[in-house]
Amino acid sequence: MRQVVILGSTGSIGVSTLSVLAQHSQSFQVLALTAASQVDKLLAQCLQFKPRYAAMFDAKAAAELSFQLKQAGSTTEVLSGHAALCQLAGHPDADIVMAAIVGAAGLLPTLAAVEQGKTVLLANKEALVMTGELFINKVKQHGATLLPIDSEHNAIFQCLPAALQQHTHDQRIQDFGISKLLLTGSGGPFLTTPLAQFDAITPAQAVAHPNWSMGQKISVDSATMMNKGLEFIEARWLFNCAADDIEVVIHPQSIIHSMVQYTDGSILAQLGQPDMRTPIAHALAFPGRMASPVAPLNFKQLRDFTFTEPEPERYPNLYLAIEACRAGQGATTALNAANEVAVAAFLAGQIRFTDIARVNSACLTQFVGFRASALDDIVALDQQARQSAQDTLRKLA
Ligand code: NAD
Ligand code: MG
């Protein structure tokens, strides 16, 4: 029995993870479930999966959860606060930690799992984008195993030679005959929307992704293609490569989840339904395989299978992220912070869809030359960039 901790169990990835685990209760046990503040959802999950621990970021929500669990006769122990999330992520009995908190809030709990040498299933791409080299160095230093959950990175990982899969952080992809990583993206809901209509895009339109069902923040990031930009930076760190080794291709059907191009002209791709339970099952079972609730593709029903290039005017955020990736760690930390502030403001109805790129661009211009490698410096830079993004928001309002 492998013991699993889920950071962010009430979110889209958390729920998908539990759906896979429910099918494999003879091999995996849920040690801990954690969430921000959604009591009802975490309560139902605790009653179904009977974890030893549950933790909530919000203290009042934790107290409510504890009360409800006791009423229901549950023995799950409830903890609260950020320190509790870190404690559970590094719990001595945990084998696998699913890092599925959204945004910078997930950084320290994810690092806590890395520092205890756990098998870390990484969905929380912002944590890696924020800290890059520091994150990967900790993985190496503590002998942690880092497996990508993001569907593109999971696809690329599956297309790598087995010898490279064991050492993605310290080998060069070129030494394995790889010439390029091809990152596919759907282009989001506004792939064909006339640019003149972009100012009027509402949060409800932006979160309605054509292929994937996801949390709000990543859905907006998919609409701006900042998500692909963050994934570009994520790929640079996960696969120890340079910006020049990565190319973004729009593939609106989301059937190919990404590809690896070899020097002999071969391109290997991973295909499947756009359903996160496939990469989750892959990572849980790695290096083996196990069933997931996802049906295989039916090629008799597949019609269009198309590819285009992302237009810079349509997706300025993608190009800001690539620029930041080339500039270095300070730039990527600052851009990620600005984007979290901008997306939250857009979802709250404070700025227009097109303002997200304005906030991000202003912040990148300000911090592009910054360097930050120690954790304290990175966290300080993240805070400075958030302040700067707030200043831009005030100017836009
Ligand atoms: P979501 O918004 O649906 O869920 C986020 C989870 O994080 C919730 O359980 C929430 O309670 C928890 N959380 C939020 N703030 C917290 C805090 N301060 N402390 C503790 N917990 C907190 O998000 P999601 O779509 O599941 O995405 C999670 C992560 O996975 C993101 O980083 C996203 O980029 C990545 N990801 C998601 C998908 C997807 O299909 N949803 C695909 C690839 C990558
Ligand atoms: Mg992805």
Automatic annotation (TrEMBL):
Principal EC category: oxidoreductase
E.C. number: 1.1.1.267
Gene3D superfamilies (UniProt xref): 1.10.1740.10, NAD(P)-binding Rossmann-like Domain (3.40.50.720)
Domain 1-deoxy-D-xylulose 5-phosphate reductoisomerase N-terminal intervals: 4-132
Residues passing through the membrane, by range: none
Cofactor needs: Mg(2+); Mn(2+)
Keywords for the protein's UniProt record, in alphabetical order: Isoprene biosynthesis, Magnesium, Manganese, Metal-binding, NADP, Oxidoreductase
Sequence positions that bind Mn(2+): D150, E152, E231
Residues where 1-deoxy-D-xylulose 5-phosphate binds: K125, S151, E152, S186, H209, S222, N227, K228, E231
PANTHER family registered for this protein in UniProt: 1-DEOXY-D-XYLULOSE 5-PHOSPHATE REDUCTOISOMERASE, 1-DEOXY-D-XYLULOSE 5-PHOSPHATE REDUCTOISOMERASE, CHLOROPLASTIC
Similarity annotation: Belongs to the DXR family.
Name of the protein: 1-deoxy-D-xylulose 5-phosphate reductoisomerase
